[in-house]
Amino acid sequence: MADPANTKLGRMLLDEITPVVMVLRTPLVEESCRKNGFSLIEMLAPFSNFNNIDVPVRTASDQPYRLRKFRLRLFYGSEVRQPNIEAAKERLKEVITFSGDKDISDLCSDPPDIESLIAISKQEMVPSWFQNFNKELIDVVAFSEHEAFDHPVACLVAVSSKDKDPIDKFVDLFNTNQLPPLLNDGAMDPKILKYFLLVHDNQDGMLEKASGILTEMRSAFGANDCRLLCINSSTDGAEEHQENLWASYKASISNSKQYGCFLNADDIEELRSTMHDFSSKHIIPHMELKIRVLNQQISATRRGFRNQIRNLWWRKGKDDAPENANGPMYTFSSIESQIRVLGDYAFMLRDYELALSNYRLISTDYKLDKAWKHYAGVQEMMGLAYFMLDQSRKDAEYCMENAFSTYLKIGPSGGRNATRCGIWWAEMLKARDQFKDAAGVYFRIPGEEPLHSAVMLEQASYCFLLSTPTMLRKYGFHLVLSGDLYRKCDQTKHAIRTYRGALSVFKGTTWRHIRDHVHFHIGKWYAFLGMFDEAIKHVLEVLPCGHQTKATQELFLREFFRIIQETGKTYEVLRLQLPVINFPLIKVVFEDHRTYASTAASSVRESLWQSLEEDMIPSLSVMKTNWLESQQKVLPKKYKESNVCVAGEAIKVDISFRNPLQIPISISNVSLICKHSAEFDETESDANGFLIDHQNDKELRAVSNSGEFSLDTSLFTLSEIDISMRGGETILVQLTVTPKIEGSLKVVGVRWKLSGSVVGICNFNSDIIKKKVTKGKKKPKQPVKDNLQFLVIKSLPRLEGIIDNFPKTVYAGDLRRLTLELRNPSKIVVKNLKMKISHPRYLIIADQEVMNSEFPTCLRKQESSSESCTQVDAARAASSLFVFPETTAISSETPLKWPLWFRAAAAGSISLYITIYYEMEDESSVITYRTLRMHYNLEVLPSLEVSFWTSPCSSKLQEFLVRMDVINRTSSESFQIQQLSCVGDQWELVLLQPVESVSPLEVLISGQALSCFFKLKNRRIRQSTEENTSSLATSGRADVKLVDGDSRGLYDTSISPFILFHHHERVHQERQEQGHGGTVDFILISESWSGSDAGLSRTTEVFSHHTCHCRVASKSPIWWSMNGPRSVRHDFSAAFCEINLSMTVYNSSEDVVSVRIVTLDYTPATNSATSAASVSGNEVGWHDTSQLSEIKVTSDVIGSRGGKAPSTDSVSPFIWSGTSSTRFNLEPFSSAQVPLQICVFSPGTLDLSNYILYWNLVSSSDGGHDVDGPKVSSGTCQGHSYHVAVLQKE
How far apart are CA 712 and CA 714, in angstroms? Predict the structure, then answer.
């Protein structure tokens, strides 16, 4: 620790524990002093404080030391008594009030953040007025009888030279009846040092008389104790002093009045000399002498072992004496009082060792006498002596703790002494950097008044801030407690100051409730002081308090409106957070060459539209950089970097308002704040309108009040809406501004009126606005000033488009004809139209001729139509871009109507995007083309669930049994199954059951299922294997009618829209084909009706369900069948029977296949592994009645098929008599016949399945892989069962 004398406590002790001089004066002396604006004591005070008196002092020891700093405390005789408590309280209140008024300017500035506060020095951090307050608290207990350092050491008697009988005046002033109670009651020795001062006013000009009086005084009172003081030597009273000596001693001094105006330099020097001589030649020597005398007396009576035993014996038995708060009365002549005087005199003369020894000596006596107040006072002085000696911190703190506790134990009479002790103790701890302990002492200081407690709590809070580590939460909490007590004592300014300090702690934390408490009360108190701007600023912080209770929210809002009402006007509030604006959700939507048919279309992300329009817009590579660069005109760079809008077309700003409260609020007159100028001037836009965070509040208010922002001007038109918001409700509001003429437009912000009395204003910062429109590729972020700046160009044609009767909810498979209607309100004709649809699986463009056809009749087969299928126009089906005929143009007189085909392809939520490109005839505009973007949302519900299962017929080539399962998955809709069609001319379909049995109830109601069975035949196989093949008309067709009694024709699935939608379904359902032989596609058509009530016509609704890529092949590329007689009669008595057979083998793959047929004279055994590898693809389904076993697929390795030779006990009833092995090659999609022969030895039924076909791909068209792995290149097939009945011929 540094030199204790240089600490705050050391300086305080050097000022407070110093010799007291009692001043007695006549009225004429006071009158002469008042000419200079102060009293006698105030005039002498600057000269009673010596920073370098340099006086040698020798107390009890023989070793002298020099006294550097010395101070006298001057008091009038009437003041040498314990202060009046009520008057002291008023003085304390004045100190606090004066300091609050003095710092009023600081209340308007922003409080420093906590980091800056910690960084500043301790002197700047702690308010300076604390020192004055603590001094006043210490002075409250001055002149106590149990302490000697406040007892007068000397008496200064002052008489004017103008007084009548001056000598008698000196005697009368020290009359016993006029002396203070301390001298009359015996608490102190009335025989004190007297110093006689004759004051002469040079304005009276009678110096000779004063000299004569001085001579009489010296003869009466002694030559050394008298002195003449001449003042007011200035004749004109206009003396000016460069240094105001009295500024720190008179609180009421102001610059408007000159103090000491009659005192010239000689007078001031005379004053300084007088007080120096009085201190160095009279008071200090007097105190030295008294210390030596008292020390000799005390050493003779109390020091030494014998004297101590005698003292303890004499005091024995006092333990049984009753408790007395003040203890026994000690007169000035008692040994206890003399020891206390000795200790206090030694302390005042800086001999702390001597003082401490005497305090220790007397401490035990007071304790034994139960004089607790005296005991506490001595303990207090012991602690201070330890501190000034910089010895034993532990002993110093123990003494202060003991004194503090004893004062509190005494009761109310010791409370003020405990306060002084606590202040000194806290300063002692702070001097040793024990701030946390000092805060605890401040907290323990008894609060006789709430105002005093407030100051102590505030001082404790600064201790927490200065502690290591910093205790911010305790700092803020104690500031709040202090501020609350300040407000209860009507110290509003101090309450605001402490709460502002606490706010620096709680700002930015999650302690929302205490932060709201602080902001709310600061706002109330600012309003009480009439500082409404600051009040509104703080109350605004608590308005969006959604975490508070409903009652608290109502209280905050009610107080806010009360403050606004007190302003007497409709107040404009910046950053009003009621309602709260969700800045990330703010979107700006404007139209340049991109226009939108609906709000939903403008909400779609730009990248999706760009991908859709990629092959529509010319020079896309240029467009992606900046669409303006694609124009032929060369524009200035400032135009290219700006957003472009069209005059007469609205700029839309979507703003999300959220009510954070639980109570409803009313918002009215919501509109944008905009600025328009005739010329595009970037410099002007920087300086006007667009206000960013660092700009001041007044600028925004000036903008909002100017005529440029009225709701309807000749430059632009603003929309205005009113909304009512329930508690916690979020509302998306769309505001518009429509420029009327060309020029520059800037969107500045938004304004609204809360509950009809408060205007809220919010400026838009472009870095927090999520712009709806982006320009092609990602570019470097534009400057802030450009994001909401628009270049307004002249009016352009703008198409309006709608799809009439577009459904919102449909069932899957619903097929409809819709109409696209395009209108052009402008007089300028648009041409060169193009159209593109995002999901052609759901929506395709029809031919114009369809507009005049009746739906759904136009979809049925006409009598003149042929059976051959029309192939799909591959280019039209693959391209999703539709170019309108060149002659198509849209003018303002006639709208364009174009048919569309719609089909709900699959269940789920679907978003359809449509964009239409068009060009203007007027090529003088900056923009020569525009696009119309349309967006529709569709909900598709499940309807019919259709599935197909196919199984090959082993007895016939490329014939399949098909089962169709249909389930109605709707909740209430019924459907009538109309027809099933195969796509393409390769297949023919035959129903295997009567038509009337397909659906006995005619309709398929909700939840019902049905199954139908068909035979599927491959026409190409039949034509290649049968020489005399009949036409398809005689053997079957690709469409099967499934309803009985319907005279209407079948639907033609080979025409648009069926064939086009089917193409997109094939692409969507495309999967890797497995095995060989291809797939088949089915289209199931059903109908439903709407408007079945009486008097309403029934509207037919058509549904088409497309199932693609149904596999009708196996892993083996070859198909075969055995041909020959089924029964033979033969006479076995004559010879064995020979039967001729043939085998037809067909290659269903696109590769050349090598086939080897091996006949066996025994039945090969088939293990489990072989049977599990069936390549026939024996599906779940049905089998021909002639088929008795399944086609099996064996391992590719011949040796893996184990054979079991016939035993010697049994002989086979037949053998193969032809070649045992036949090899040949088959071209793709070709067949071959192989002759075979058997020899039968006995009658019976024979199973001719004991043969094996080995196949191998000779050439492969691709080296692809199927979904299950590499494509199989070879394999083995077990023979089909073929039974021949051989009978004995009779």
Answer: 7
